[in-house]
Amino acid sequence: MVVGADDQAAALKVASLYDGLTTRVIITDPASAETIKYAANAFLATKLSFINAIAAICEGVGADINDVVVGMGSDKRIGESFLRPGPGWGGSCFPKDSRALIKIAEEAGYDFQLLDGVIAVNDQQFDRVANKVRTAVGGELSGKRVAIWGLAFKAGTDDLRDSPAVAIAERLLASGARLAVFDTTVDRPRAGVPAGVTIASDPIDCCRNADVLVVLTEWDEFKWVDPVAVAAVTTSRVVVDARNLLDRTQWQKAGFVHQGIGR
Predict the structure, then answer these.
(1) What whole-number distance in Å separates Cα of residue 183 and Cα of residue 152?
(2) Interior CA angle at 42 toward 36 and 45, to 5°?
(3) Which active-site residues does the annotation give?
(4) Structural domains in the chain?
(5) Residues 19-77: pLDDT tens digits?
(6) N or C: which terminal CB in the chain sees fewer CB atoms within 10 Å?
(7) How many CB atoms lie within 10 A of CB 181?
């Protein structure tokens, strides 16, 4: 926990409210406290952009990103946390804090090109996933039926703010695709849900007559959907698993072409 204050006595009083916690309490000045918060989230975003860039290289050279992550994560200086490739990062903190840190750096006279690149790589990842879907349906999205599993920016939340899933869905819609979506937290149109999508009642219903299935949020329930049941309702058997969530072997046994990230 970080407490930022100009008044040391006030900071100690605030910190004392958390005496029952076992976590470390850091007392510092307001500027340092603010920088800690922005820098921490920007660094985590950097790790995610980095591993997505490495995943792109893996696809080009025939490496498996899962093995690469295990190898990198075995180095205690790196660790495995926030090294899971996916459709990109988003939510209420990483995008906002990364942009805020770039602005603070600019006002301080520093050109934060590194963090500019982190954001650029993330935007590229949205495009890369959308292009994977385009390729999966033969190169032309107009009129194609796309089933999307997941809209929240990550599992365990209903937050759609700056969600990679929403960003990718909007790219597909702009290319003329017809989208059906299922997310356990979305049962009706609301703020953040792209206009023009059909909201499905369950994962199987979402896939009805779909030309391709796209997994964009790592909800655990998607792991347990029977691929044979999905195959029975889709028009073609192609899945773009942008979370590397599904059991590739099981889906291939059901006749699907499984395309993940970095493998």
Answers:
(1) 7
(2) 145
(3) 93
(4) 133-259 (3.40.50.720)
(5) 888 888 889 999 999 999 999 999 999 999 999 999 999 999 999 999 999 999 999 99
(6) N
(7) 23
